[in-house]
Amino acid sequence: MEGEKGNDLSKDTVSDKRQDSKPVILIAIPAGRRNGTRSCEGLIILHVILSSSLFCFVFLELERILAKFGQDAQKIEHSVLIGCSDQHEAWFALDLALGNSHSSGSLQKSEMESELQGAFIDLRKALFQLNEKDASLISTAQALLRWHDCHQFCGKSGQPTQKNVAGSKRVCASSKMIYYPQMSPVVITLVSDGTRCLLARQSSFPKGMYSALSGFCDVGETVEESVRREVAEEVGLELDSLQYSASQHWSFPNSSLMIACHAAVRPGQTEIQVNLQELETAEWFSLEEVAAALKKKGPPASQQDGAIPFWLPPKMAIAHHLIQEWVQKQSSSSNLA
Ligand SMILES: NC(=O)c1ccc[n+]([C@@H]2O[C@H](COP(=O)([O-])OP(=O)(O)OC[C@H]3O[C@@H](n4cnc5c(N)ncnc54)[C@H](O)[C@@H]3O)[C@@H](O)[C@H]2O)c1
Ligand SMILES: [Mg+2]
């Protein structure tokens, strides 16, 4: 647990970067207060519709804006390093901790929006509007800021922890413990029987939307063991084979590392037993049905009987990537046949 190399920028390095008017991305997390505990109700991004990209501030501009709203520029010390531009400019994220209209001392959302001619939007909505690079940056910012917000005290000594300048860790001076931001590993699996693929719904999903099977890895499990266990637990199927496809950092509801795999069952071993404690339903879908659903942009309109036709997760979700990969592979092999 000695001091780490890499992104633990020392104070002078980072402060140089800040003083060189490096851009800083403003992030705001509205903290709702429910039963006395602070709950981050979601990340609101200052999405200034100028060049339809994230609004980057240079350090001095940010100081001016904070001063205008009666905020101490020291607030900037709470920002965290989330990456750097192709020109090696350090990017930081800052939690504006926007209050509602009557809370004193915190930044007022509406005033901030008019000052910057922008609008705060919810993270999920913002991710639909951002390119892949900005989406990943914002997702990292939200996960890191939320992690710091929830690790203010040492689990061992109860004493306050201190963030290092880059925000890559928190340290307890009393217990000497070093805390690093965590991501929970989650496996997501598209099971195929050779001609169909298996998709499932949780009751929490938007109406009509189906996705690949997913589940958190248990402590001590390998990815392969998690994939086999989750598929067996959720739909009662035994996998014949599986192979890794891709991964994705995913912020909902917490910081997860999605590990996506394709998997196959043996021919004839396709009878599903849906675990109704975990899933609302699970079904086999044909290549034609899935290929048609991939063409739909977002949730379809409800039918006359009020039912919402089957649709798939959006492009920014790794489930979409898995499903698209399966359709391409099936289509090319059926063309070859
Ligand atoms: N990006 C995508 O394409 C995509 C698609 C589907 C699901 N997901 C995400 O995958 C995650 C897991 O999906 P799931 O709900 O099927 O998981 P799951 O099947 O493991 O069931 C969720 C339950 O796992 C338990 N759990 C175990 N470890 C946990 C941890 N570290 N954090 C939170 N809960 C933990 C909790 O009781 C939770 O209710 C969800 O966060 C979901 O948002 C992402
Ligand atoms: Mg699951």
Describe it:
Its EC number is 3.6.1.22. GO terms for molecular function: hydrolase activity; metal ion binding. It holds the Pfam family Zn_ribbon_NUD. This is NAD(+) diphosphatase. Its cofactor is Mg(2+). By secondary structure, the protein is of the alpha+beta class. It folds into three domains: 137 residues, no CATH class; 31 residues, no CATH class; 153 residues, Nucleoside Triphosphate Pyrophosphohydrolase (Alpha-Beta Complex), CATH 3.90.79.10. Strands 1, 4, 5, 6, 7 and 8 form a six-stranded mixed sheet that branches. Strands 12, 13, 14, 15, 16 and 17 form a six-stranded mixed sheet that branches. β10 and β11 form a beta hairpin. α4 packs antiparallel against α5 and α7 crosses α8. The chain is globular and about 65 Å long. Bound molecules: nicotinamide-adenine-dinucleotide and magnesium ion. The site of nicotinamide-adenine-dinucleotide has 19 residues, from β12, β14, β15, β16 and α8.
| Range of helix content | 25-40%
Strand residues, percent: 25-35%
Taking the alpha carbons of the first and last residues, their distance comes to 56 Å
CATH architecture of the largest domain: Alpha-Beta Complex
CATH class bucket of the largest domain? Alpha Beta
How many structural domains can be distinguished in the coordinates? 3
Predict the CATH topology of the largest domain: Nucleoside Triphosphate Pyrophosphohydrolase
Uncertain residue segments = 1-25, 28-57, 100-105
Q: What coarse outline follows from CA principal-axis ratios?
A: globular
Structural class label = alpha+beta
